[in-house]
Design goal:
- The protein is α+β, with helices and mostly antiparallel strands and 148 residues long.
- It folds into two domains: 74 residues, no CATH class; 47 residues, Roll (SH3 type barrels).
- The protein is 39% helix and 22% strand.
- It starts with a strand and ends in a 10-residue tail after the last strand.
Length: 148
């Protein structure tokens, strides 16, 4: 819980039990409270007031930046998901080799399909399936004829 101590001049005392951060509303309340309760014989200097307003502006810009970064991260995650789907689609009908990183088991065969399982793309061979991330080799048909 935040408490505001005695305010005099440009000094301000804030203590928090949780060591949390003060938000925009809290900052404005503190600034208004400081102006209301300042010593009339020793008012806040213009430079101190301007510095506090600059801090408020910086706080607002940081909050906007944080919101925009969150949006950018969500767009990147969406883009990555689409790239994974395109990668899986590009493997349809191709011979691949994959290796289970935990056991070393090798999977080989022609990709017949793919599906989403637990948030990850899995490739389907005639009798096996494995995560697309395990692929380490893709056969490329340079002659142009499709083998089925």
């Amino acid at each position: 819980m935040a408490t505001i101590g005695a305010l005099s001049g440009s000094q301000q005392a804030i203590t928090t039990e949780t060591r949390g951060t003060i938000g925009r509303e809290g900052f404005l309340k503190l600034l208004i409270n400081q102006l209301r309760h300042q010593d009339p014989l020793d008012p806040v200097k213009n430079t101190d007031f301007i510095a506090q307003m600059a801090q408020l502006t910086s706080l607002e810009q940081l909050q906007d930046l944080n919101k925009n970064l969150g949006y950018l991260v969500s767009l990147q995650e969406l883009s990555r998901g689409r790239e994974d789907l395109l990668f899986a689609a590009s493997l349809l009908g191709r011979e691949v080799a994959a290796k289970n990183p935990g056991t070393g088991e090798i999977f080989q065969g022609q990709v017949r399909g793919y599906h989403l399982k637990e948030g990850e793309i899995w490739l389907m061979l005639p009798e096996q399936e494995f995560p697309a991330g395990w692929v380490y080799k893709i056969e490329v048909n340079l002659r142009g004829d499709e083998s089925q």
